[in-house]
Amino acid sequence: MATATATEMQPAKRALGGRLKPWPYYVKRFFLYIIMLVLSAIFMVPLAWMLSTSLKTQGQVFANPPIWIPRPIMWQNYIEVLSVAPILRWLSNTFIVTVSATLGTLVSSSMVGFGFARLRFPGRGFLFGLLLATMMLPGIVTMIPTFILFKTINWLDTFLPLIVPSYFGGGAYNIFLVRQFYLTIPTDFDDAARIDGANNWTIWLRIMLPLNAPVLTAIGIFSFVGHWNEFMGPLIYLFSEEKKTLALGLRAFVDPYLASYHLNMAAAFYLTLPMIIIFFFGQRYFLKGVVMTGITGR
Amino acid sequence: MFTDKISRRQLLRLSGIGLGAAVLAGCQPKVVEKVVEVTKVVQEVVKETVVVQGTPQVVEKVVEVTKVVQATPKEKVQIDFFTPAGVGLERTMYTNFIYRFMDENPDVRVNVSFESWSDYMTKLPTVLAAGVTPDVCHAHWTIAMDYIYNGAFIDHMPYMERDGIKREDFIIELMDEFAHGGKQYLIPKDSALYGCYYNKDMFDQYGVPYPSLTWTIDDFVETATLLTRDENGRPANDPKFDKTKIKVFGCAWVDPTMAADIPAGFVNAFGKHWFEPDMKTSNFDSDAVIQYWELCRKLRCVINCMPTPAQAVGQGDLWRNARLVAMKYDHQQNTFFAKQEAVQFKYDVTPLPAGPFGQYAPAACSAFGVTAKAAHKEEGWRLVKFLTSEEIQKWIGEQKRWSVNRPNILDVIAPTDGIPEHYADVHIKPWKTDYTGPLKRIAMKAPVGMGKLKQLYSTYLDPVFTCQSEDVAGAARKMKEEADKVLAEAKW
Amino acid sequence: MATVTRVPQAGMLAKAAGKRRRSKLAIREAIDGYIFIFPWLLGFILWTAGPMLASLWLAFTRWNLFMPPEWVGLENIRQLFADRFVGISLWNTAYYTFLSVPLGIIASLILALLCVQEMYGRAWFRTFFYMPSLTPAVASAIVWFWILNPEVGLANMVLKAIGLPPSQWIWSAKTSKATFVLMSLWGAGGNRMIIFLAGLQNIPQSLYEAAQIDGANAWAQFWHVTMPMLSPVMLFNVVMGIIGSFQVFTGAFLMTAGGPANSTLFTVLYLYRLAFEQFNMGYASSLAWLLFFIILGFTIIQLRLAETWVYYEGG
Question: Within 10 Å of residue B243's Cβ, how many Cβ atoms?
Fold first, then answer.
C-alpha cells in the first residue's frame, strides 16, 4: 500500500471553507442537495405516513386518494391511546431494559473485540470461528432450549433474560464489528504504548476506546435500537401485563379487524420517537467529514 | 420485582381507565349500565388495597402485612391463564371477569397473560414445549385439533357431567368443533355467526335489487357482476367494461381456502364438506369443492368482481370505507365496527346464498380449555366454567361485538337501534334451538395437520387464484392426493 | 488526528523492541487474551452452547413439542432431500441473498459517501436515511402494501410515469422475490451505512492529502485510499449480509406468508412453519442445521477470499 505510508504528509487546506469557487462547484452542490432531498423523501415515507395517520380521524385513514395532512389534526389521539393500554408503563420498562442492555453490550463487546483483534492466544482462530458460527443457526430452533434454560434458573417474567446476556459479550455481531475496527488501527500505537510501560488494559482503555469512538457510538445506536424494538425475547420471557415492553405491547394493537390505525400509529410513534432522538444525537459522533477532491466538486 | 398486591392494583387502575374509555367509546346506554356494574366490583376490590396508595415506603410495609395475612389462612391456589386478546375493550373485559371470578373463588388466584393474536401462536407452543404449562388456555378452531390430537387438553366431559353442564346448553355445532370420539376438549368462549353485508346505497345507485333472505348462488353472482363498475359506471357484464379501472367491486371475502370460516357455507351448498366427517379423507376433488373453487376463480379472474389480495390488504376495511366494495361476508362484529366507525351509508345483512344442496349458516369460534399438564385442573375447570357460563356470556353478548356460545341467550346480541334490519334473521334466529327456517347450521371443524394443508393449498391453488392458471380440476386433484396423505398421518 | 504525525517514528522503535520481548510476553499476552474474551466465552458456555447442542440433538429426533422427543436417527436428513419445499425455500433464499447483498452493499456505500460530504443539514439527512430502520416492521408492512398496490399504489404510478408496464409486485410469483430485494434496498441507509460511515471516520485525512499531492483524482482516491482502508469494514458487511440474508424472515412473514405459490417461502419462514404450525420441531432443527452448514460454507469462502482483498492496518 503506497498510499498508507504517506501519513507524514503536510496537512493540506480542506476542500471547503475557501471564498468564491468556480461556477461548476455550485452546480455540483446544487445536484448534491437535490439528490439528498429526493433520497430523504424516499426514506421518510413510512415515518411520514405513521405521523400523518396518527393525527387522523378514523374515517380519513384509508381515504383514496390518500390524505397527507389531516384535517382536523387529532392531537388527542396521543392522549386517547394512553387510556387504551398502559403505554407509559411499557415505555418505562422498555427504557430500563434498553439502557441496561446497551451499557452491557458496549462494555463487553469492546472488551471481547480487543481480545480477538489484538491479543494472540492459542485457539483464537477457532474461538473466533465459533463466535461467527453462533450467528448462523436460526434462532427459532434454539428458542425453546434457551427458554428452558432461563426457566430452570427462575428468570421467567423478569427482565433478566433480556439484559444479562448483553453483559456476556454483547452479541457476536457487535464483537465482530469491534474487532474489524480495531484491526484498522495500526499496531504502532500499541507498541509505542507498551514501550511506555502500558499493559493491555491501559492500551484498551486509553488508546483503543478513544480511537474507536465512531464504531462504539454505532454499536451503542444499534444496541439501543435493537433492544428498543425487540419483541421476540420479551414475548417469550415476559408474562404479566405490567412487565411488558412497548414493542411487545404494541403488537396487540395490530388486529386486522380493529382497523383503528390512527391509534395504532400514535402508539407506534411513542415507540419510535425516543429512537429518533437517540440516533440524531448519536450520529453527531461521525460528523467529521472525509473530503475527497472532485466528489464535492472543486 | 413487583409484589402481587401492587401489580394487582396497577392492573385495576389500567382496567378502570380502559372501562372509562369503553364508556366514552359510545356504547349503548344499556351496555353502559353493565359497565358501571362491573366497575363497582372493581372498586370493591380496590377498597381492599386502597391503603396501599401512598409513598413507596408505605407500600412496602403494607405488602409485608398482607403477606402475613395471606400466610395464616390456607394458601391460595395459583392458576395461569393464557389467552390472546386485543387491547382496549377485550382485555379490560377479561381482566374484570377474572376479578369477579377471584371474588367468587377466594381460594384461587389467576395469573393472566394476554398476547396479540399472531404472537400467541408462537408463544403457546414455546411455553408448552418447555414444560411451562398454563392451567387454562385458548385455542382457535383452525389449530385446536392439532393441540387436541397431541394431547394438550383434557376431556372436560367428566367435569361437565359432575357439575350438570350439558353439551346441549351450548350451540352444539360449536361444541363439535372441539370434540372428538365422544370427548369434549375445549368449551367455546363466544361465537362468530356469518352473513353477507351489503351497502344499500350502492345497490340504489346502480339500480340493483337488494338480495333476498333466500337468494341463490346464481343471484349472488349476478348481483356481484352488476355491482362491479368501472370508472365510467359500466357494469362488469358490459362488453366495454374496463377491468383496469375498477371503481367498485361487487363482493369481497369469498375466501377460497379451507382454513377460513365462510367458504364452508358455499361448499356445503354445492353438496359436500371440505372433509369427510371422520376427517380421514378430504373432498377437494369432489364436484362441490371444484364448483366452489371455479366460482371463486370466475369471480376474481373472469368477471373481476372480487378484489385480489393485493387490493384487499393495507387499506382498512374495503366495505366499511364505502369506496371499493358493495358486499362482503363477515360475522356480527361487522355491525359493531360499522357503528363504531360511524359509516355514512345505509346497509343490511342477509344469509349466505343457497346452492343446489341448500342454504347454510356458517359459524366459528375459539375456545378455552384445561390443559393436560395443568397443575390445578379443578380450579382451571372452575375458571373455564365461569368464563363460558351464561352470566358471563350475556355480558360478552351485550357488548354487541361478539356473539354468545349458547342458544338461549342469543337475543342479547341484537342491536338496540334495529340496524341492520335483518340482523336477527342472519345472526340470531338460525342458531336458536326452535328454528325451523331453511338455513342449515354448520360449524367449522379442522382436521389434524392444518399447517401442512395450508402449505399444499398455496402450492396448488395459488396459481389459480392469482389468475395464472385455469386448471381448477387439476389443482384440486393434486391437492386431494397430497392432502389425504397428510390426513392419514393422524392416528387417533 | 494530531497523534498520527508521531506514529512512524514510534512504530519503528516499537517493532524493534517487540521482537526482542515477544517470547517473554507471549504467555502473558495469551493469559490476557483469555481474560479479555472471557465474558463472551462464559456467556457462550452458559446460554449459547447448550441450546445449540440441544437443537443439534433434536435434528435427529421427531418432536411435536408436546410428547417427549423420539430418536429417529437419520430419518430427518433423508426427508430433507425428499422434501421439495426444502429445495424451493433454499432456491428462494439464495436468489434473495445473491441479489440483495451485493446491491445492498453498493447502495449503502453510496449513501455513506454522500453522507460524509460537507453540507448543510447533514445530520438531518443521515437521520432521514436511517428512518426505515427505526420504523416498526408492522408499520412499514402497511406502508409497503399501500405503495405496492397494483391499482392505486405509488410504485405502479412511477412505472406508468416513465412509460413502463405496471407490475403485480409481491402478488405475482414472477416478481415477488425481486420485489423483496427492492424492499431490502430501502433499508440501505440503516446499520450498514452507519458502519461504512464509522469506517470512513477511521481513514486518516492525511492519506487523502498525500494522494492529492500525487495528483490522484477523486476516482483514484476512492480505489486507492478509501477502498483499501475500508476493506475490513467491507468484509464485515459482506459476511454479516450473507448471514443475515440467508435468514430473511420478517417481511415474508408479515406480507406474503410465503406466497404466491411458495415464491417467497424463504428457508427460515418454512422453518417457522414446520416448528410452530406443523409441530415438527425435530425436522425443523435438521433444516436449521442444513442452513447453518450452507451459511458456514459461504462464510468460509468469503473469509478465504478476504485474504486477497482485505487490508488490515493493524493486522
Answer: 12
Task: Provide, as residue numbers in chain C, all residues whose Cβ is less than 8 Å from the Cβ of B308.
Answer: 150, 171
Residue carrying C-alpha cell 485457539: A123
B327, β-bridge pairs: B198, B251
Q: Using an 8 Å Cβ cutoff, are C195 and C236 in contact?
A: yes
**A47: helix, coil or strand?**
helix
| pLDDT at residue C198 tops 80 | yes
Taking only the tens place, the pLDDT of each residue in B336-364 is 988 887 888 999 999 999 999 999 999 99
- The answer to whether the Cβ–Cβ distance between C296 and A192 falls below 8 Å is no
Residue B24 reports pLDDT greater than 80? no
In 3D, which of A181, A7, A176 has the Cα closest to residue C202? A181
Helix-strand-coil split of chain B, %, nearest 5: 50, 15, 35
Q: Each residue of B75-85: pLDDT tens digit?
A: 789 999 999 98
Choose the closest CB to A259 out of B11, B88, B317: B317
Contact B451 C273 (CB under 8 A): yes
Question: 3-state class of A136 per DSSP?
Answer: coil
Helix, coil or strand: residue B194: strand
Chain A residues with beta carbon closer than 8 angstroms to that of C128: 39-40, 43-44
For strands B325-331 and B192-199, give the pairing: antiparallel
DSSP B427: I
Residue B107 cell numbers, joined: 381460594
Contact status, residue B318 vs residue B324, Cβ threshold 8 Å:
yes
How far from each other are the two terminal CA atoms of chain C, in whole angstroms?
Answer: 21
Flag whether pLDDT at B13 surpasses 70. Answer: no
| Rounded distance between C-alpha atoms, residue B164 and residue B168, angstroms | 11
**CATH assignment of A86-244, among 3.30.1060.10, 2.40.30.110, 1.10.3720.10, 2.60.120.1440:** 1.10.3720.10
Q: How far is CA B71 from CA A62, B63, B66, B68, B74, in A?
A: 56, 12, 8, 5, 7
For chain B, what is the largest distance between any 2 Cα atoms, rounded to a whole number of angstroms?
A: 84
- Which chain B residues are Cβ-neighbours of A261 within 8 angstroms? 316
CA gap A31, B178 in Å, rounded: 66
Q: Rounded to whole angstroms, how far apart are CA atoms B10 and A298?
A: 64
Pick the CATH number of B193-364+426-489 from 3.40.50.720, 3.20.20.70, 3.40.30.10, 3.40.190.10: 3.40.190.10
pLDDT at C185: 93
Asked which of A41-50, B41-50, C206-215 is least confident by mean pLDDT, the reply is: B41-50
| pLDDT digits 0-9 by tens, C226-264 | 999 999 999 999 999 999 999 999 889 888 888 898 999
